[in-house]
Amino acid sequence: MSNRVAIREGILREDAQGGALLGNKCLSCGQVFFPKANFCVGCFSKDMKEEVLSRHGKLYSYTLSHLPASRLQPPFYVGFVDLPEGVRLFAPLKEIKNRPFQIGMEMEVVIEELWQENDNQVIGYKLMPV
Fold first, then answer.
1. From residue 45, how far is each of 40, 62, 71, 125 by CA, in Å?
2. Which stretches of 48-100 are assigned E, i.e. beta strand?
3. Do the Cβ atoms of 90 and 80 come closer than 8 Å?
4. pLDDT tens digits for 11-57?
5. Domain residue limits at 98
6. Has this prediction a pTM greater than 0.90?
């Protein structure tokens, strides 16, 4: 049986709703960061609090890659999605049959296996149309 291991520690959590991304928020000026920052680059405060990010956002931009990248085999889509907290995520996009990507469409964060490594399922996040 394989273990589920996050692609990066502290970046996500799995729950009954499927999972969520974990960022942090500056308690001085309110800026939100993903991944977590050690200090606020806006006001330089170190007073940061963990923040569970929204599961939904809007597709800002995307592209279809025909070149291999790390463990992703072509062809695959990647894109930027804007979350309500002001964070712009870059991530692989998950295709849904008969739902072509369109700038501005609603997208949802999904937590799933990205690849197998030794006896581990490496999990991470993708974004898919709602």
1. 5, 33, 36, 28
2. 48-52, 56-65, 76-82, 88-93
3. yes
4. 999 888 888 999 999 999 999 999 999 999 999 999 999 999 999 99
5. 3-129
6. no
